[in-house]
Write a structure and sequence with these properties.
alpha/beta, Nucleotidyltransferase, domain 5, seven-stranded mixed β-sheet, 19 helices, 24 strands, globular
Length: 494
């Protein structure tokens, strides 16, 4: 038996699977996020521990015999978070999360070096990444900075609690800006940009490699029969990709979740920092991936539904009818989906969401359509950014809560002019991915090359020509709206 733990922003999800990868039991425990100031996003790491223990208890209650036979486990986590540990193993301050934008000035500081930072890190310096968060702490909380013994990513802090070991793996470490992406090792040059040394970092492994064993007190507390092995695991998107079997260059996925992601593996290190494309290591050896990221995707939909007092199902029903009339689309409003700033392709922490071309005839459905269209244009932005350096992907899978809408997928298929496949991926996809990585440590499994298999496709959506000319014309206008808005965005934020 194998356990997959997914440390998400809003909850911890945990699954128990057998050697056939059948999910035997699942558990979920919620988390909270604190926003003490505009642009700040933090989390208390103690919640991760409490929720993990709650999920262990739930799995044990549901499948006590199978749970006790667990051989190994893997951990996935939301990336970029700065969890600071002192020499006694205590957390110094709340973890600064991936969607925190306070360190935009420190990003400029980080790149002002006598060498090319981006050529090593493979990425443009963004407030969401770990490194500028540490620079912000040095500039604003010097006492906390001086206490730093280790900087751990969220899942790697949870690993420390479970095993007592300091390890990270390549996919998650890629999001720190301290990793030499091409050579898969910590870069002393990049660490020096944050006034740190390699001693402040955990050891590095691949996602399927051993990092230690569950502590004896936890083994005894939960009645595990085996010394449970803990593998490297993965960052959240690499874990989700592994859960779907997306590890080869012709594969990719679009996630319409809280954030919007386009992810495609590569066989070597590639980079497009000009469009803020993420260039990361994959969680399996000798594999990399490119990724575009929108910070606000399904949460834009949640927001407009709340504002218009309409359910998601009602909203999609309204919008689908709205979309049948060409004149209505031509004259509808525009929406910039930047509720929390943006990454790909703008790397703009100051930009915010906005409606444009609102008239006396504008109604709730018009605004709902504008939001879904605007998010779709943002996904197209991301795909186009990756196409500049890599066009090897053929198969695109759709995942995330937004993928449940046939209308939305059909709209995206037309915009991208590509086939899109919906698979039987559940909300536990990232947990399945790291449970698969854990299976590599089971010596009784002979054909380990078959562990990460491609997930089953349930439906394929083909591009449709109706309204595509209108959409592409509106896309061009939408891009101009960003170019105008970003000139004043910084003055609007206080």
């Amino acid at each position: 038996m194998f356990i997959g733990i997914d440390l998400g922003t809003s909850s911890i999800k945990m699954i128990l699977i057998d050697q056939n990868q059948k999910i035997l039991a699942t558990a979920t425990s919620s988390l909270t996020v604190q926003s003490p100031k505009n642009g700040f996003s933090e989390q208390n790491p103690q919640e991760w521990i409490d929720s993990t223990m709650n999920c262990f208890e739930a799995l044990k209650l549901k499948k006590p015999n199978e749970f006790s036979q667990t051989v190994s486990l893997g951990i996935s986590g939301h990336m970029h978070g700065a969890t600071l540990i002192d020499k006694d193993g205590n957390v110094i301050r709340p973890c600064i999360l991936w969607n925190d934008t306070r360190s935009h000035q420190e990003c400029e500081e980080f790149e002002k070096q006598n060498f090319d930072v981006r050529s090593i890190s493979g990425n443009i310096t963004m407030p969401g990444f770990t490194a500028p968060k540490i620079n912000w702490i040095k500039n604003n909380e010097i006492d906390n900075f001086r206490k730093i013994f280790k900087v751990l990513l969220p899942k790697d802090y949870l690993r420390f609690i479970l095993t007592g070991e300091f390890f990270s793996e390549m996919s998650d470490a890629s999001g720190t800006l301290w990793l030499d992406i091409k050579h898969r090792k910590w870069s002393n040059k990049l660490l020096s940009c944050s006034f740190l040394e390699e001693k402040h970092m955990p050891n590095l492994v691949e996602g399927n490699e051993l990092t230690g064993y569950l502590k004896k007190e936890l083994k005894d507390k939960f009645n595990f029969n085996n010394n449970v092995k803990v593998v490297g695991g993965a960052g959240d998107n690499a874990a989700a990709a592994t859960g779907m079997g997306i590890t080869n260059k012709n594969q990719s996925f679009i996630s319409l979740g809280t954030s919007g992601v386009f992810f495609t593996p590569t066989e070597s290190f590639l980079s497009n920092t000009g469009d803020a494309v993420h260039s990361f290591c994959h969680c399996l050896p000798n594999k990399w991936h490119l990724m575009s990221v929108m910070l606000s995707t399904s949460n834009c939909l949640d927001w407009i539904c709340a504002v218009t007092s309409t359910s998601i199902a009602e909203t999609f029903n309204n919008v689908e009818k709205f979309y049948t009339d060409e004149d209505t689309i031509n004259n509808s409003s525009y929406f910039l989906p930047y509720l929390s700033g943006e990454r790909t392709p703008h790397n703009d922490p100051h930009i915010r969401g906005s409606f444009h071309s609102i008239k006396t005839t504008t109604n709730a459905t018009d605004l709902q359509y504008a939001v879904i269209e605007g998010v779709s244009f943002g996904i197209l932005d991301g795909v186009n950014s990756i196409l500049k350096v890599n066009d090897n992907f053929d198969n695109i899978y759709m995942v995330g809560g937004g993928s449940k809408s046939s209308f939305w997928i059909e709209l995206l298929a037309s915009l991208l002019n590509r086939k899109l496949s919906v698979c039987d991926q559940s909300e536990f996809g990232a947990a399945l991915g790291v449970a698969r990585l854990a299976m590599f440590q089971d010596d009784t499994i002979n054909k380990k090359e078959k562990i990460v298999s491609e997930i089953k496709i349930s439906k394929i959506y083909e591009p449709k020509k109706n309204n595509i000319d209108i959409l592409l014309r509106r896309y061009a206008i939408w891009k101009d709206l960003y170019n105008s808005n970003n000139k004043i965005a910084q003055n609007l934020n206080f």
